[in-house]
Amino acid sequence: MVSDLHLEKGSSFAARGTLLPPYDTVATLGRLAAVIARHDPRMVIALGDSFHDRNAHDGCPRRTARPSRRCRRGATGYGFRAITTRYYQATSAAWSPAKSRSADCVSSRADGAAGEIAGHLHPKARVPTRGRTVERRCFACDGARAIMPAFGAYAGGLSIRDAAFSKIFQTLGFMAHVLGDNRLHAIAASRCY
User: Fold this and answer.
1) Fewer beta carbons within 10 angstroms: which end of the chain, N or C?
2) Residue 174 and residue 146: Cα distance in Å, rounded?
3) pLDDT digit string (tens) for 59-77?
């Protein structure tokens, strides 16, 4: 499961006059291909905000713009399911195993329901370590619900200490599973700033 690919963010910014290198889609999809090759999943679920805006689909290179239902990987394949949201701006998607058989598995915003896995907020944690501070993307999780980090190369992040997270978790009693170079580091949200 991945969230917030934000494909074609560079071209979206360029169209509005802010020039960014146009390599985010290739970088993001390359990273996704590497994760798929490493973990060999049967199904890949993209949790919304896959395209940065409603024009991004047109800007994607032809071979990457339309993922098929059955993507080829050697002699075997894996399923691909993109959960879409109603709007491209300020939207999120959430998936809940309890609701996964119905169309109700997508919500416009994470509501903090038990079993919910959501994107949109792009959690990041700032952690003090060895006399310096490290800031990285992270999963925010309390064992009952999780907010996924943005997967896109140009996607930014929102501090887990932001008020948006307190609406979901209510207290700082959740964990930041910080993305390291080779593994996740579980750090109490109360230790982050």
Assistant:
1) C
2) 9
3) 666 555 444 333 444 434 6
